[in-house]
Amino acid sequence: AFGEGELDLRNDFKLEFDFESTSDDAYLKEYDYSNKDRLDSAITLSRARRDEFISAGLINFKSLRDNERNSTLPTIVADTFYERRFFPAKLGGEFRVNATGHSHIRYSNEDIEGRDVARFSAGAEWLNAWTVTGGLRAETRIGVIADYFDIQEDSTFDDSESGFAPFTTLAMRYPMTKTEASGATQFLEPVAQVAWTGGSRLDVPNEESTRVEFDTGNLLALSRFPAPDRRERDLVGAYGINWARFDPNGYDTALAVGQVFRDEEDEDFTRTSGLRGTTSDYLVAAQVTSVSGLEVTARSIFDNDFDFTNAEVRGQFRNDRGEISGTYLWLIDDPQEDRNRSVSEIALDGSYQIDGNWTASADWRYDL
Asked: CA 59, CA 81: separation in Å to the nearest integer?
């Protein structure tokens, strides 16, 4: 039984929920119903306004994998988030205050394997941006974050940890555009940022930041870890360049390149992330789309010797009668991500509507 729903409540609140349940762990794959091997049922209450966001949710996970025990997995997960924005006229810019809460519970009472963790973070920051002579764009952030962790069922860590993390960033952008005679538009934007985060890393288990994705979305982030149980500290710099060409009658293309520098190596970054050492690997991402339905996206991370830590290419073509898509994936071996050998594989998937009643489909996956 799978189901989902969404309700509009009073005062702009929304209630969303979904549930997933199966009578037998092998049922979904045995009868080719779904490839899901972990079920999640969730309920979330949220409200989004121009100057405020509120969210509270609860998730229940159930693993269908033979090699996983639900009692030692974070089965019950709760998340809360609140943020408020102010626009002080005298000071200028934007002032934000936020608070986040998270907890996950394992059913097991065994030491270490049954570890339960709860965290709470509160922060305040001021943001502002200026466009100076010549079109150079400057952006800054100044703020502080307070973290508190409560750890149970694990004798290797203290029951609680807390700390403060002041931070500041300065980012520079120089956006440029060019219009071609054909009507296409080119966009070019060099970017650079210097960020500093104070405080010391808390002695807490790495429960949420075990997989780090270095991509164009977090090139200029304050921290590239996905959760607050890890934060990048000290001085970190980043630079990159974004280029795009938009053609209303043909192909749209985009390319982004970036790299990160830091004062000291952060050992919590995995090999696959490309962020180990004081100088990161190069990040390159590209995309091509067309009005005819073709879309190709690629992302790779490699070092000065062009040794790739990971690479991914995804392509898709779609029209009124059918679609075909393919993926190539390369990941190096990385014990920190529980991967003891490199992964290289190709996957293809397609379907075609023969007529109003018949559709043919096929998929193929190959481990290189």
From this structure: 15
